[in-house]
Amino acid sequence: MKDGCDAGERGWNARGVLEAAQGGFWAYDIDGGGFLCGPGFPELAGCGARPGECAGPFCRNLLHPGDLPGLDAALAACAAGASDLLEIELHPCKPDGNWCRLLVRGRVAGGGPGRRLTGLAVSLPPGPECPQGRDLFASVFEHAQIPMLLLDPDTGRIEEANARACLFYGYSREALGAMTIMEINALPPGVVLREMEAARRAQRTFFRFRHRLASGELREVEVHSGPVRTGGRNLLYSIIHDITDRLRAEEALRRSEALMSGIFRAAPVGMGTVRHRVVGTVNDVLCRMVGYEARELRGQSASILYPSIEEFVRVGRERSPQVERFGSGTVETVFRRKDGTSLSVLLGSAWLDPEHPEEGMIFTVQDITERKRAERELSRVRRAMHQLADAMPSALFVVDSQDRITLCNGAGQALCAEAGLPVEGLPLARALPGFPGLDDMLRALREDGAPLSRKAMPHETGGTLRYWDLLLYPLESLGQGEDGLAVVRLDEVTERVLMEETLIQSEKMMSVGGLAAGMAHEINNPLAGILQGAQNIRRRLDPGLPANREAARALGCPLEAVAAYMEQREILHFLDGISESGSRAAAIVANMLNFARGGQAAHAPLDLNHCLREALQLVNGGYDLARGYDFRHIAVDLQLDPRLPAVPGSAQELQQVFLNLLTNAAHALTSPPGAAAHPRITLRTYATADAVVAEVRDNGPGIPEDRRARIFDPFFTTKAPGQGTGLGLSVSYFIVVRNHAGTIAVDSQPGAGACFTVRLPRNAPRRREAPPEPEDD
With contact defined as beta carbons under 8 Å apart, do 653 and 735 qualify? Predict the structure, then answer.
């Protein structure tokens, strides 16, 4: 039996209180067995021991043998929780050999492993003689709240069983009285007899057995047994404490602890415990993660795992509200390994016992370094994809199953911005009001699951008509709630459409050119006859030819009279007009033939003044009712340098350049609202040291600055729809810059007209004659 020093080690320190108390105060540690008493208890018991020197609880070695079963039964009832009150009369033997009477009363206090009995012992008046214990023992035996048996140590026969024993085993008192303990104990009879002998000799007083009930069920029991003399016989008393439920609970607890220990060891994540943010137990995974051994972490502040005190404080500040509200919490943080390197982790924490937070917390550590690296890489790829999408000229939209825009690139935002609408969350048909039928196309896309496309859809914005190619493509499901996604792609193809129209027009023009060339050849024949006829008429009327005079004399009609008649009737003037018109028509036909010829003409020395005059002659009779201009109403001022040196080039191509410039100038001069009151075009040529220059200047409305930068771009036009393709100046730029290594520029101010300057180098490399096309068989 341990004294109060052992009790003090268990955290139960009542020595000072009991030593200061007067009277028979005492305290008994139910689980540890320690016993403390005040100064008055040894005096009452007559043991003469000083406090702290007790040989056993309640002076057990001095008690009458008949007191021991009752005392053990009462203590066992308190230990089992069957009673929280101890009240018993004990009979210690004093040094003089006389028996004294003590009434011991106490109550259970505390819970869990710290349970204790505390109470008071008082002296009772002495009786005429010491009781033999039979009546007292019988009373305790019968009324004990725990099963008790009296056994014959020689045969194992059950001599007596109290009411609790009958209730526990399920037998009547008579049935138990007819049985032996071997019929109840699951051990072999020989082993049972040996254990009974050990109890009779007081070699052992505590045993663990398995007892069989009347139902056949085996129950685990603890048995306190010892010798007792009663009724003149030496018997064994047995106090039975059913511990089956406790053992089951202990086994369940052991298995739970083993399970938790196994999880703790086998978990693929780091685990540990902390109390007041001081590290307790840690598993091997955590040790491998941070590079410490368990002994290096145990007892250390958890701040050892963090790169800074600030991060340590931040984690505690973020985790505490979660744990207080939900019982657990997670925080992403960074751990510092023993070698100083960093480790990204997901830290989870929960109370070990939510009802006792002071017991500390259990935490898990998941290494998310790779996940964070993957997230950074994914973020980088997403940014790259977004930048790539934004760099695309196509307008891209991602729409959900409700046709609402969830994502779009920069071109898509710019397209929607033209309508003055926000983008994300807006229905696609509302964001793109100028594209009818989008809802029906998206519905058909989801029904068929096949991509849909529409070519060259017209769309008017701000009064400008543009064309778009539309592609709708279904997306595979990206996750729960993301079914029905689709990509909508819009590509502006205005230039392509205009180019196609231009190519078609070019094909038509080539056909017309071929037709014009054929017609020119056909016109040349009658035109030659007309010119030749006019010339022959003049020759027939010429008085200087002898044949004419002879014919007139023979007919009696003098040539002088005929000449006077012709002069009088202005017939010769008419002949001059026929010749002049015929010559002019022949020149126009020749220009048409030159202009209609295909292929790349070889460069040869040419007269730029001649090119200008031919272009002017082609456009001079130009009249367009639809476009509202008549070139005949425009004054043309020729300032051509007669000493202009020849330059290498293609007369046909340069003629086309000047024809475009003259046509554009005529349109600008005669088109409202900037039509000039007195339209004038000035053609000027001059030479420099290294180039020949031609200027085409008009006094029209001029070109705004914002348009001058784009005036040579393909398909850029300032004319109304249907009145221009926007290719004239771009083709002229191509001919001058690429084919002739020259330059073409414009100088203009609003309201002050425009001046186009073509500069051709005098020593540019010549282009060779294109090989002739093979003739058809």
Answer: yes
Which of 41, 146, 163 shows the shortest CA–CA distance to 86?
Answer: 146
Question: Distance between CA atoms of 672 and 3, rounded to whole angstroms?
Answer: 123
With 0-12 / 13-18 / 19 or more C-beta atoms within 10 angstroms meaning exposed / middle / buried, residue 224 is buried
**Spatial distance between the Cα atoms of 466 and 484, rounded to a whole number of angstroms:** 30
* 207/194 Cα distance (integer angstroms): 12
- Residues 405, 423: contact at Cβ < 8 Å? yes
Taking CA 549 as the corner, what is the angle to CA 547 and CA 550, rounded to the nearest 5 degrees?
65
- Per-residue pLDDT tens digits for 699-718: 888 887 767 766 777 666 66
SS3 string of 191-214?
A: HHHHHHHHHHCCCCCEEEEEEECC
Size of the chain in residues? 777
Cβ-contact 264, 272 below 8 angstroms: no
Q: Comparing C-alpha atoms, which of 69, 58, 137, 152 is closest to residue 105? A: 58
149 — phi, psi (to 5°)?
-130, 150
Task: Give the tens place of pLDDT for each residue, 352-400.
Answer: 888 888 889 999 999 998 888 888 888 888 888 777 777 777 888 888 8
Q: What distance in Å separates the CA atoms of residue 398 and residue 408, rounded to the nearest whole number?
A: 6
- Position 576, amino acid: D
Nearest to 83 by CA among 100, 108, 63, 110: 108
CB 664 within 8 A of CB 728: yes
Instruction: Quote the distance between the C-alpha of residue 540 and its chain's center.
Output: 101
Q: Is 109 exposed, middle or buried (0-12, 13-18, 19+ CB in 10 A)?
A: middle
Higher per-residue pLDDT: 17 or 90: 90
CA-CA distances (angstroms) from residue 31 to 12, 27, 51, 78, 111?
Answer: 12, 12, 21, 10, 11
Residue spans of beta strands (DSSP E) within 652-753: 680-687, 691-698, 743-748
